[in-house]
Amino acid sequence: MPSIPLSKGDKMLYDKITKNITRFYSETELCSNVYLLESEGKTLLIDSGSGALDFDFAPDRCILTHAHFDHSLGVKDAWESVLLHNADIEYCKAVPAYLARFFHLPGQSRQLPEGKMEFGSFELEVVHTPGHTNGSVCIFETRSGILFSGDTLFADGAIGRTDIGGNESQIMESLEKISKLKWPILCPGHGPIEKSTE
C-alpha cells in the first residue's frame, strides 16, 4: 500500500511497480493510468487522470505527459506545481473548436523543461515525443530504467492515435527516438505495464 492517504472509492485500483512507484487506474471510467513516485517524503504524480481517481493529497509536483482530458482533468486547484510541455500549452490556447472537448489545460500549468531533472532519489529525463499531441512527452527514470510513455507507446507495441491533435509522421519519429532507450519496465498511459523479457 502507498504511504500517502488515498480516497477509498471503488473506481480506484492500484498496483506496486517498485517500492516507491505505484500505478493507479480505473476499469470503469475513461481515465489514464496515474503513477505516484515517492521519495524523501515528497510525492510526484505522472498524469492526473480524468478525475475518476480521487487523491486525498496535493502532490509536490505533477507532470502531465500531454493535455488530453483523460490525463489532465484530475488536476485540482490546490496543486501548485503542474508541468506540461509548452507545445501543448500553446496548442490549448488555440485548439480548433472540433477538438476542444478532448483537451484540458489546468490553469496553473507551467512549462515542463526537457532534459534531466532530479526529484529526491529519482532522476527523470523528459523526452519530447510529439505525434499523439504536439507536446507529448515520455519520462525516463534513468536509475531504474522505467519508461513512462504516456500515449506514445503501449504494451505489445501498440502506438498512440494521431487523429486528436496529433501527427502520424511525428509519432513515428518519436518512436524511433525512444527506441534508443533501454527499459526493463514500460509504464504506458493506458492499459497494462509491460516488463522486458531481455
Structure description:
This protein is mainly beta and about 200 residues long. The chain has a single domain, classed as 4-Layer Sandwich (Metallo-beta-lactamase, Chain A). The protein is built from 3 helices and 13 strands. The strands form 2 sheets. It has a 7-stranded mixed β-sheet. A 6-stranded mixed β-sheet has the order 8-9-10-11-12-13, with no helix packed on it. The longest helix has 11 residues. The protein is globular, with a radius of gyration of 15 Å. The two termini are about 30 Å apart. The mean pLDDT is about 95.
Give structural attributes.
198 residues; mainly beta; Metallo-beta-lactamase, Chain A; seven-stranded mixed sheet; six-stranded mixed sheet; 12% helix
Report a brief summary of the structure.
This protein has 198 residues and is mainly beta.
Radius of gyration: 15 Å
CATH class assignment: Alpha Beta
> What's the CATH architecture name?
4-Layer Sandwich
Mean pLDDT: 93
Helices, by number, come to: 3
Q: How do the helices and strands line up, and which of them pair or pack?
A:
Blueprint: E1 13-18, E2 21-25, E3 34-39, E4 42-46, E5 61-63, H1 69-72, E6 82-84, H2 86-93, E7 109-111, E8 115-119, E9 122-128, E10 137-141, E11 146-150, H3 168-178, E12 185-188, E13 194-195
